[in-house]
């Protein structure tokens, strides 16, 4: 299964970037740009069930993360888009 990546904010193209494993949360990587948290990566899609706890430990606004999660199909509108960030028809 592909990992899920949550882009939390825009970053400058030449920002000083680094990624760290989240302490106490195996399979969670945090991406920083110029010292600010800008991304969150879950190794397995099933880890989305732990997202509330991860968000709480990070001390970030839940809507900042949850609004980034999309399903791959919207049956009622006939739209289809990728779960992992790509948009458009498939």
Task: Record keyword descriptors for this entry.
single chain, alpha+beta, 90 residues, 29% strand, four-stranded antiparallel beta sheet, two-stranded antiparallel ribbon, 2 helices, disordered C terminus
Q: Mind explaining what this structure looks like?
A:
Strands 1-4-3-2 form a 4-stranded antiparallel sheet, with no helix packed on it. Strands 5-6 form a two-stranded antiparallel ribbon. Residues 86-90 have low confidence and may be disordered. It has 2 helices and 6 strands; from the N terminus they run E-E-E-E-H-H-E-E. The two termini are 19 Å apart. With 90 residues, the protein is of the alpha+beta class. The longest helix is centred in the middle third of the chain and has 8 residues, at 51-58.
Mean pLDDT: 85
Q: Can you count the beta strands? A: 6
H and E order: EEEEHHEE
The helix content, as a percent range, equals 10-25%
Quaternary structure state of the chains depicted: single chain
Radius of gyration, in angstroms, nearest whole number: 14 Å
Which band does the percent of strand residues land in? 25-35%
Spatial sequence of strands, sheet with the most strands = 1-4-3-2
Structural class: alpha+beta
Major sheet details: 4 strands, antiparallel
How far apart lie the N and C ends? 19 Å
User: What general outline do the C-alpha atoms trace?
Assistant: globular
Q: Number of helical runs? A: 2
Low-confidence stretches: 86-90
